[in-house]
Specification:
Blueprint lengths: L27 E3 L2 E7 L9 E7 L15 E8 L1 E5 L4 E5 L3 E4 L6 E3 L6 E8 L4 H12 L6 H10 L6
C-alpha cells in the first residue's frame, strides 16, 4: 500500500486548518440527542464525515441496517452505547471502537438510562447532515408516505437486512 497522489501541490503549505471549540453548541438537537458536525463531507472534500453524537438518558438509536457505499466507524467517548456488529449487540464503553465496512450490518443504541457520547466516522464523506435533520423532523411529527420513505432511505444509502 502506498500514499495516494498529492492533493496539495504547493511548496510552502497554507493556513487552512479549521478549529472547533468543545463549547460550540450542537448543530442539531432533538429527542435528547445533540449532534455535532465536526467535519462534514463538504468540508473534507468528500474524504470523510466525522460527527459527535451525544445521547440523553432515553433509549434511542437505529436498529440493524447497512450501507452499500460508505463505511461507518464508532468510538465511544463516555457512557455505554450498545453496538450491533452483525452477530449481536455488544456493550460499547469508553474507548471501545467498532468499524463497519460497506455492506456490514450494524446499529447503535443508548439503552442504559444514562447519557452517553460517541464519534461517528463515515468514509467517504457522504452528505449525512440532511439525513440527520430529516430524522429530527420525523421525531417532531413529520410523516413520510411509503414511497417518500423508501426514496429517503435509498437516497441516504440505508438498507434493512
Amino acid at each position: 500500500m502506498s500514499y495516494p497522489p498529492p492533493r496539495y501541490e504547493g511548496d510552502t503549505g497554507e493556513v487552512s486548518a479549521v478549529f472547533r471549540a468543545h463549547t460550540q453548541p450542537p448543530d442539531l438537537s432533538y429527542g435528547g440527542r445533540d449532534i455535532h458536525y465536526l467535519a462534514t463531507g463538504r468540508t473534507t472534500q468528500g474524504a470523510y464525515g466525522l460527527y459527535r453524537w451525544d445521547f440523553g438518558p432515553d433509549e434511542s438509536g437505529p436498529g440493524p441496517h447497512f450501507h452499500k457505499t460508505i463505511s461507518e466507524s464508532f468510538f465511544v467517548l463516555r457512557g455505554t452505547v450498545r453496538l450491533y456488529d452483525g452477530r449481536g449487540w455488544r456493550e460499547g464503553r469508553e474507548g471501545d471502537f467498532l468499524h463497519v465496512p460497506p455492506g456490514g450490518v450494524h446499529g447503535f443504541r443508548n439503552v442504559v438510562g444514562e447519557p452517553a457520547s460517541m464519534l461517528l466516522l463515515f468514509t467517504p464523506g457522504a452528505p449525512r447532515e440532511e439525513y440527520f435533520e430529516t430524522l429530527a423532523e420525523l421525531a417532531a411529527g413529520r410523516e413520510l408516505g411509503e414511497e417518500e420513505a423508501a426514496a429517503f432511505f435509498l437516497r441516504h444509502d440505508n438498507y434493512e437486512p
